[in-house]
Specification:
This protein has helices spanning 13-16, 25-30, 55-76, 84-90, 101-116, 143-150, 183-196, 293-300, 302-310, 329-334, and strands at residues 5-6, 19-22, 34-41, 44-51, 97-98, 138-139, 158-161, 166-169, 201-206, 209-213, 221-227, 230-240, 242-249, 254-257, 260-263, 279-284, 316-321, 324-327. By secondary structure, it is an alpha+beta fold. It starts with a strand and ends with a helix.
Length: 338
């Protein structure tokens, strides 16, 4: 079936999300100072919950947050022909392309992560362009195509000039895929937009990546972590008054064939869907501490992920793989019953 379109069953996204915001029914039913809004963005559903007594301020702040997240997502999408990421692909092998400060920050972070992860993360993985993981569009990449494309995957061939805010892909055919490292900064931009307009208490959930600040009516936000082995059940609940839960897994975009899961997190070394882990959740105070590490750990597997985590103070983790489920001691101590 290699290289052919296939109609295959896709795992339900709603059950696959490893991190979910738990909002008390009575709060959402009563309304009052709490407002929730949802929209498709970043290839998933993004939900925003804010708490503030001023309804007009809530409405204006939500509008501003959506506009800022949309602006940045359109800038960094490889699927939009007008994006700066697409402009870089078109100019690959030729001239440098001007990029916005927000995109430059993501590119610099991606290169640093590639170095720190010894190449298990690589933002030039977009060269593997033949896979199809969307519903109804399952498509296996040809092995011969992956071998050709592998020569175009090397983060060191992305040349960045932060002084002039310009970037260049050194060889023709190179492409960026920022899906593993742009999502959290974009959600963070939305949260900062809310805060700049006076919304202190807010939570943004983007396909299982959760950012929050403040509280919900005097109580910490509650984030449930699902058991990847039994996705309808919760392992436990985290209480957060600020921070991030970053989830990665093979559930988000992909298909099953011949007893194997094919999904959108690709191993930069060969273009194949990663097999190191099935899913993970990282918990930290700051986005910068965990951004992009989920994709790197999915590729590298549990033993290397645990070595990296030992050198990441303040980061707690849940790792799910073929050998079972592992929770860092700090996370195990923070999880309460659902």
């Amino acid at each position: 079936m290699s290289g052919q379109m296939m109609m295959l069953r896709r795992r339900p996204l709603v059950l696959g999300l490893l991190a979910v915001a738990l909002l008390p029914r009575q709060v959402m039913a009563n309304g009052g100072s709490v407002q929730r809004a949802s929209a498709p963005l970043l290839g998933t559903q993004v939900d925003i919950t804010v708490s503030h007594p001023d309804a007009d301020l809530r409405r204006q702040a939500l509008g501003a947050a959506w506009r800022e997240m949309l602006r940045q997502s359109e800038m960094m999408s490889r699927y939009r022909s007008a994006s700066q990421v697409s402009a870089l692909a078109r100019a690959a092998g030729t001239a440098a392309v001007p990029v916005a400060p927000e995109l430059m920050q993501v590119l610099l972070a991606g290169q640093q992560l590639a170095r720190d992860s010894e190449g298990h993360f690589d933002l030039t993985v977009g060269a593997y362009a033949d896979w199809g993981f969307e519903p109804g569009q399952a498509h296996m990449a040809e092995a011969s195509a992956l071998r050709r494309q592998q020569r175009l995957v090397d983060y060191r061939d992305l040349q960045l000039d932060s002084a002039t805010l310009s970037a260049r892909l050194r060889r023709p055919g190179m492409r960026l895929d920022l899906g593993g490292i742009a999502k959290l900064p974009i959600l963070q931009a939305g949260l900062r937009s809310l805060q700049s307009m006076g919304i202190r208490d807010a939570l943004i959930n983007g396909g299982g990546d959760v950012l929050c600040s403040g509280q919900l009516q005097g109580r910490d936000w509650r984030i449930g972590l699902r058991d990847p082995r039994e996705p309808a059940q919760l392992l436990g609940v985290l209480s957060l008054s600020g921070g991030v839960v970053a989830a990665s897994g093979d559930y988000e975009r992909g298909f099953d064939l011949g007893g194997r899961r094919y999904h959108h997190i690709l191993d930069p070394r060969n273009g194949q869907p990663s097999q190191g882990l099935q899913g993970l959740a990282l918990v930290a105070r700051d986005v910068e501490a965990v951004n992009g590490w989920g994709a790197a750990m999915m590729v590298a597997g549990a033993p290397m992920a645990r070595r990296w985590l030992a050198a990441m103070p303040g980061v707690e983790a849940m790792l799910a793989g073929p050998q079972g489920l592992w929770l860092s001691p700090g996370l195990r101590g923070r999880l309460a019953s659902a």
